[in-house]
Amino acid sequence: MTHTPTHFLTPSETSLLLRIARDSLSEFVQTKQRLELSGYALTEELRARHGAFVTLRAAGKLRGCIGHTRNLESLAEAVRDNTINAAARDPRFPPVTTEELAAIRIEISALCPGSTPGLPFIPVENVDEIVLGRDGLYLDHAGSKGGGLLLPQVPQEQGWNLEAFLEGVCRKAGAEPDAWQRGDSQLYRFSAQVFSEEEAG
């Protein structure tokens, strides 16, 4: 199986998505309104349906991260809506305030197509297929509501090897560390183009 390139967006497209995310964050935090996208020069790829996650950090620490894997809306809309969700609807954090805006840095994970239309997932037949830094993991576990998902950048951020990554996605699913090996679970990998305001300067 050929792997979908993880760099399917051009530098100008990633720059525009970061601007949409920043404008969405400012607009919602200050006015509680959702940004109108008609004023942005969206390319065909940005109008195509993709899943996406948006991560907010303040002083290097996580401040919110929410996304969706299904291709529910255009990539531009997914970035806008999940920026708002990360800022206001991540249950781990209070909503972002106006005073915090300048300190927050935004990271976007635009999900690449998978083996099933509308989803980014590719079933893992052998864990040797998993490439740290390229692949995220999703564990569909019988005892878990919604499964567990970890983005491709997590192992590097946490200093994890493959074993730790596998155990981490099991914990995220609320399962035992070896649940990925069990018959009532299915492990998937997925890839994303990850880019941030930090990298863009």
- As a percent range, the share of helical residues equals 25-40%
Assign the structural class, choosing from mainly alpha, mainly beta, alpha/beta, alpha+beta, or little secondary structure. Answer: alpha+beta
Shape: globular
CATH topology of the largest domain: Glycoprotein, Type 4 Pilin
CATH class wording of the largest domain: Alpha Beta
Number of helices: 6
Query: Secondary-structure element order, as H and E?
Result: HHEEHEEEEHHEH
Question: How many domains would you count in the coordinates?
Answer: 2
How many β-strand runs?
Answer: 7
Look at the structure and name the CATH superfamily of the largest domain. Answer: Hypothetical protein ph0010, domain 1
Just name the CATH architecture of the largest domain.
2-Layer Sandwich
Largest sheet: 7 strands, antiparallel
Q: How far apart are the termini?
A: 36 Å
Average pLDDT, all residues: 94
Beta content: 15-25%
Please give the radius of gyration in angstroms: 17 Å
- Unreliable runs: none
